[in-house]
Model the fold of this input.
Amino acid sequence: MAKWTRLQLAAALMLGLAGPAAADQTTTDTDRATVPVMTALGMRELPAQPQKIVVLDIAAADTLAALEVPIAGLPSRLYVDYLNKQQAEAAPMGTLFEPDFEAIAGLAPDLIVAGGRSSRQVEALSEIAPTIDMTIWGASHVDLALSRLRSYGALMGRSATAAALEAAFLAKLEAARAAVDGRGRALIVMTNGPKVTTYGAQSRFGWLHGALNLPEAVIEQPEATSGDEAQTAKAAEAATHGEAISFEYIAQANPDWLIVIDRANAIGQDNQAAAATLDNALVTGTEAWKKGQIIYLDSAAIYIAGGGIQSMTATLEQIRAGFAVGG
Done:
């Protein structure tokens, strides 16, 4: 069972008894004119409780939706089914990579939240309204995601709800850790039609290894020297986009568990499904396949909305459930 702080436990009880809106009526967030928010570019002081928000980051939309914060503008397509309500209620603001600046300016938002795929547009968006880059990235994925949750809670006057969501996440984390403990090594792979990439402990999905203490199934490679720029660049690329691998690689790594993300499915493409891609003699010879220890994650949640509190909590539950029935 997770160890909750008194604040988290109180918040959870308040949420269970009275619902999120009532729980936050007792917070003091509304008494502040500005709120300090840690962004990917440093600390910002922002006016408390902005009324009209444009969100160009799916992880941020995920967390703000969990906090029941109204969102005025969103990208024209989110790909994440559990945000359909927010999508239907918000005005379309272009895409993550190409925001519709005219539409955003016409909406006259009090705040624009960018991040991840839209982070390169922060400077241009700042000419329309205060804009924050809330990208979640790197080895501190979970800590950053929870920091973002708390920041949104404080900014929107919903700290009690944020505390309850964090408590629920931490409980799922402890349950998932217990489920994977001593169950062997895992390999995280992403398919894109017939192509396969792997994501290690330092990658965008590596938080599953780090946060869960889940051993990684790897093939040891010679370490690059400090002057080996090509190897250093390759490592950085692998952290971002994964490392393309063959089925022979999977066979040689011989994981006890395969954790699978289907990119084509995540972005709505009708390509070859992950299960079909992996169904070949090399992969079926692994311990993971022979024991039925393959977990197909909700690809849109982890690939598109990764770092959102709903996405992370649901992913942990999928991991826990998958390890509970495997082998």
About this structure: DSSP finds 16 helices and twelve strands in the chain. The radius of gyration is 21 Å. Residues 101 and 124 are 9 Å apart (CA to CA).
